Amino acid sequence: MSADPSPTSRASSQRKARELVANVATELRLPPDIVALRRILDDANATPEQLIETLGRLPALTGRLLELIELPLHRQESDAWTLPRMVHQLGAQRILDLALVVMVSDGLARIELATERCGFWPLAVRTALVSRGIARQCGRPESDRSMVAGLLMPTGLALLWHADPAGMQRANQILEQEGTAARAAQRAATGTDCVAVTTALARQWQLPTPIQRALACCDEPARAVPHHFEAAVLRLAQSACDFPGAGEPPDPLALSLLNLTPACVHTVAANTELYYQAYLDFMARRTYPPSTASDPDPVMPAAP
């Protein structure tokens, strides 16, 4: 587990992270489409028909959304998804969450070299799927939002490799030679760490508050109240996916907050491998054959 920085060190790391994100902001902007969707979501009087009309004017985003929900986790047994059916069945909030999955995936294509150097996509996709699976196992309706947060978790790694590759090489040397915890090595070499950078990016993008708080407090979920559930999900997903500095075994506090056992988390993580490749191909914008996997919806071991 990464060493807990002092308040002074944490503040310095956060300041450095904000500076780094500000420097790459022009390269990593969310598409303006998100503004139109937020406007609908924030309007208490908005109707499904207005959302259908808005998405109809955004054919590229709508096409990617329909492609995403044809993958195993949202695929229906009956007819294929259509735009009206998607809006009426999923609702505005879930569509916004899934749109963020699409936009984050598409936006990070601009720093492809950095994502390759840090193995971003395999880690991000697994963290996204495990986060969604844990949230779903707990019966939470915002499981797609947890998927967004999980996908974002390793973004700080990619941004550090993009903005300061020499510093990240030094961090790896410190890690290998001194045995320093991963995030402590990052702070020593770059002045900040991957979690601080991810948090700064989420703030820069003005993502929903639950996502921002979950990312900021993923190491200490109790600090995220009232969004401690979302933070606890990320904490467990980190451990299950070998996220740098997350540590093993799963955090007892996070398990307690979610009323889960280590066996539950392990089973969720194992089940994601059934459809991992399809989501990796989609999020990394690769071509893949149609997947025949389906969401197994297994019965998990109950917490005592």
Q: Based on Cα principal axes, name the global outline.
A: globular
Total count of helical runs of at least 4 residues? 17
Please name the fourth-level CATH homologous superfamily of the domain at 7-29 and 111-283: Hypothetical protein af1432
Would you identify the CATH architecture of the domain at 7-29 and 111-283?
A: Orthogonal Bundle
CATH class type of the domain at 7-29 and 111-283: Mainly Alpha
Helices and strands, in order, run as HHHHHHHHHHHHHHHHH
Strand content: under 5%
Terminus-to-terminus distance: 26 Å
| Helical content band | 55-70%
Major beta sheet summary: none
- Rg measurement, Å: 19 Å
- Overall SS class: mainly alpha
Mean pLDDT: 86
**Which blocks of ≥5 consecutive residues have pLDDT under 50?**
287-304
CATH topology of the domain at 7-29 and 111-283: Hypothetical protein af1432
Strands, count: 0
Question: Can you characterise this structure?
Answer:
This protein is 64% helix and 0% strand. It is mainly α. The protein has a domain at 7-29 and 111-283: Hypothetical protein af1432 (Orthogonal Bundle), CATH 1.10.3210.10. It is globular and about 55 Å long. Mean pLDDT is 86; it is low at 287-304.
